[in-house]
Amino acid sequence: MEDERLAQIEKAKLEAINQSNNTYNQMNQDNQTMLDQNINYAEQFEKTQNEALDKQLDFYKQNIDKQKQDAQKNYETEALRAENDFVSYTNPYGYQAETMASKGQLQSGISQTAQLGGYNAYQNRLATANKAMQDAFTQYDLDMNEAIINNDVQKAQNALAKLEMVLGYQQNFYDTKNQI
Q1: Is 162 exposed, middle or buried (0-12, 13-18, 19+ CB in 10 A)?
Q2: Of 28, 133, 139, 180, which is the most buried if we count CB atoms within 10 A?
Q3: How far is CA 15 from the centre of its chain?
Q4: Can you say whether the dihedral through the CA atoms of 39, 40, 43, 48 is positive or negative?
Q5: pLDDT in tens, 5-30
Q6: What CA–CA distances, in Å, run from 97 to 39, 94, 105, 164?
Q7: Which residues touch 169 (CB under 8 Å, ≥6 apart)?
Q8: CA nearest 124: which of 94, 85, 97?
Q9: Would the pTM count as exceeding 0.70?
Q10: What spatial distance separates the first Cα and last Cα of the chain, rounded to whole Å?
């Protein structure tokens, strides 16, 4: 009888130890699962942030490319206007021909000097328009490089934030594991 009681007590003791071990193992497994989920969350956070940054950078690139195209069109428009002004100014059959003919200056040195002045004005307008376009291109390139650098800096900050989250999760994991 005493042996039966001791056997029952021993059996209850082993069941309690097994239940305690099972609870301990389940708590450790739950803690590990939570750590894994939190790490996945941190990685997803970084990925989502970086995707948003990439979309923003693509938008900046498209905007800057559009501005470059506009600068090119403005240059071409100004070049065409300058050429039209030059041709209308120097055309001997144009609006100045009658005035110059009445003054006897049509094929004189004065006429050629005026045409040369018109050509110089045309070249100056082209040079000014080209310089404005090149300056705009330079500024657009600087803006693009700045956007890329800012994008890279922000991605590095996202990686740091992810690392800080993961380290916090791991610290929590080990604290919880030590308390179990």
Answers
A1: buried
A2: 133
A3: 62
A4: negative
A5: 888 888 999 999 999 999 999 999 99
A6: 83, 6, 9, 81
A7: 35, 38, 39, 42
A8: 85
A9: no
A10: 38
